[in-house]
Specification:
about 220 residues, alpha+beta, six-stranded antiparallel β-sheet, about 25% helix, globular
Length: about 220
């Protein structure tokens, strides 16, 4: 009887933990975002970040006046996927996601995207104490979207096309599901109208996905 009672209690505790898991995740992502060092996101103060999430949860809006007197917007707050996306300014976005490494320890991924006017991203990874950690990711080059084999060499100089793709404007985002990092090529937006018209048919619009394997982001086929 005693063993049955213990088993019953354990099952009840397990069930409560399952029910509470979204709240636990919510506290985790919210706590890390709100309490991160201001240097990681200087546009918003700790008070700004807290109010932005609290207003959203209370259904009172998804924007806040940042420390420079302009509006910042909460674009996504996903407690299950542990992901937050904030439009800090009209030309910049801050994205944060918590994921698991190969040793099951949490890692924080941060993507900063700036559009001036063509959009370009950078990504960094930290532990929960905000120490930089060695998670390997190689930013794809714009030329990887260029289908060189399809270029008619009698009409277009292939080296000219390669040179156009030599300067890359790549944006990143974390997938809403799974541990995927998705890259989009924006380099065509940087080109002149004439050059874009010539080369666009040979540049793929498909995004490139990377999956976290161990501590390395590997390109998916």
């Amino acid at each position: 009887m005693k063993q049955k009672a213990i088993l019953k209690n354990n099952l009840i505790i397990f069930g409560l933990l399952l029910l509470a898991s979204p709240a636990i995740l919510s506290q985790s992502i919210q706590k890390l975002y709100v309490n991160m060092p201001d240097a990681f996101n200087p546009t918003l103060t700790k008070q700004n970040r807290m109010e932005l999430l609290e207003y959203h949860k209370a259904g009172k809006g998804d924007s806040i006046t940042n420390r420079f007197g302009h509006q910042s917007y909460l674009l996504s707050y996903d407690t299950l996927q542990q992901k937050i996306v904030v439009k800090n300014t009209p030309g910049s976005t801050f994205e944060m996601k918590i994921m698991k490494l190969d040793d099951n320890k949490p890692a924080i991924g941060i993507i900063r995207t700036v559009c001036a006017p063509v959009c370009l991203s950078s990504v960094e990874f930290y532990d929960t104490a905000w120490n930089s950690i060695p998670v390997r990711f190689t930013m794809p080059k714009a030329i990887e979207w260029l289908d060189v084999k399809s270029i008619p060499t009698d009409k277009i100089d292939v080296q000219w096309a390669r040179n156009l793709m030599g300067i890359g404007f790549i944006t990143l985002r974390f997938s809403d599901k799974n541990q995927l990092l998705v890259a989009k090529n924006n380099t065509l937006d940087f080109l002149s109208v004439e050059d874009r018209k010539v080369i666009a048919p040979y540049v793929s619009a498909t995004e490139i996905s990377f999956e976290l394997k161990g501590r390395t982001w590997q390109r998916k086929p």
